[in-house]
Write a structure and sequence with these properties.
Helix content: 25-40%
CATH class: Alpha Beta
Number of strands: 9
Distance between the termini: 35 Å
Largest sheet: 6 strands, parallel
Structural class: alpha/beta
CATH superfamily: Metal-dependent hydrolases
Oligomer: single chain
Number of domains: 1
Order of helices and strands: EHEHEHEHEHEHEHEHEHHH
């Protein structure tokens, strides 16, 4: 069985890398850009390269699914890069391929706001994919950069799922029928993604959970069971959205970036942005075993637990990261 988490934005350190190993986490998709420019994103990649050298006994840079096996064989965690905004490509489609070459494997078409490509979930109107968005989807398909619609609005997500020639992902969200958070996904959106072969990662971020920080393990696992019954088990995994050890000040950068001089409270909050406490049963990378136990208690068998905890993501990685063959090859 693989343990794969398809979204984290932790305050990375040796202690977290060691906790990943203690928790037997085989692979993690990490956010390396929210509002960063291309050059700033390259600086983040350089930072990770130094960590790969410094902690080469704990982590390695994941580029293909085979790197997850290499990580398991050497008792390490494979780290896959992703962006929560298309800002790293700026307005230059050629940067899609360059960033894939540098190691990126996921890119959201929008964060909370309208982008050059698609609409974010906080916008009042959603006109869908832009002309550039369609062109970038084709280029992302070609090079093997996964289209992530976790923060995108409904019409944009549905259009992306239908327009893309390769399955897309919602790496970190939950069904809005379970908890109607602005970032959670409607039945129509989930169906569009899974009907086109895509994947969705269940989020452990409290704003995405029913009862938020007080969400119970049983409630979360029942939500997983209901989703599997409705849409099929092959389309789901974990995308925890874990922000372990991050200071509250980071939330301001995530939500505000450089687009406003004010504070975007987000998620209906009336207070300054900050990280809510994690549920007691999932505080960090050492607690994936607790989710597995909860899934078994709710009625999943061993094969189903293995699919949900990582095997489905492994298959998706294997099918998604390689460039498409050109017609002349």
């Amino acid at each position: 069985m693989y343990r794969i988490d398809c979204l984290q934005f932790a305050n990375w350190s040796e202690s977290i890398f060691r906790e990943m190993r203690k928790g037997r986490v085989d692979a993690v998709h990490v956010t390396i850009a929210y509002h960063e420019t291309f050059r700033e994103t390259v600086a983040q990649i350089s930072r990770w390269k130094r960590w790969f050298d410094q902690f080469d006994d704990l982590i390695l840079h994941g580029l293909t699914a085979a790197d997850i096996d290499r990580a398991r064989e050497t008792d390490r965690t494979a780290i896959f890069f992703g962006f929560q905004n298309p800002s790293p490509i700026e307005a230059d489609i050629d940067l899609v391929g360059i960033l894939h070459t540098l190691g990126a494997r996921f890119m959201q078409l929008s964060y909370n706001n309208q982008s050059l490509l698609a609409t974010g979930c906080y916008e009042a109107e959603d006109p869908g994919l832009t002309r550039m968005g369609r062109e970038v989807i084709k280029e992302m398909n070609r090079v093997g950069l996964v289209i992530d619609m976790s923060h995108s609005a409904d019409r944009s997500t549905i259009e992306a799922a239908e327009y893309s020639d390769r399955p897309i992902a919602i790496t970190h969200a939950n069904p809005s029928a379970w908890h109607p958070a602005l970032r959670n996904k409607s039945d129509e959106v989930i169906r569009a993604v899974v009907d086109n072969g895509g994947m969705m990662g269940f989020s452990l971020y409290p704003h995405h959970l029913k009862d938020k920080s007080d969400c119970t393990l049983e409630s979360f696992c029942q939500m997983v069971a209901d989703s599997v019954e409705t849409y099929g088990i092959d389309h789901f995994g974990i995308g925890s959205d874990l922000c372990q050890d991050q200071p509250d000040s980071v939330v301001e950068w995530m939500r505000v970036g450089r687009w406003t001089k004010g504070i975007d409270l987000g998620e209906g909050s009336a207070a300054m942005p900050g990280f809510p406490p994690q549920p007691t049963w999932f505080a960090g990378n050492g607690d994936f075993g607790t989710i597995e136990a909860g899934l078994r208690t709710i009625g999943f068998d061993d094969n189903e637990v293995e699919s949900l905890m990582g095997n489905n993501w492994y298959r998706f990685f294997a099918e998604s990261f390689e460039p498409l063959c050109s017609s002349g090859s």
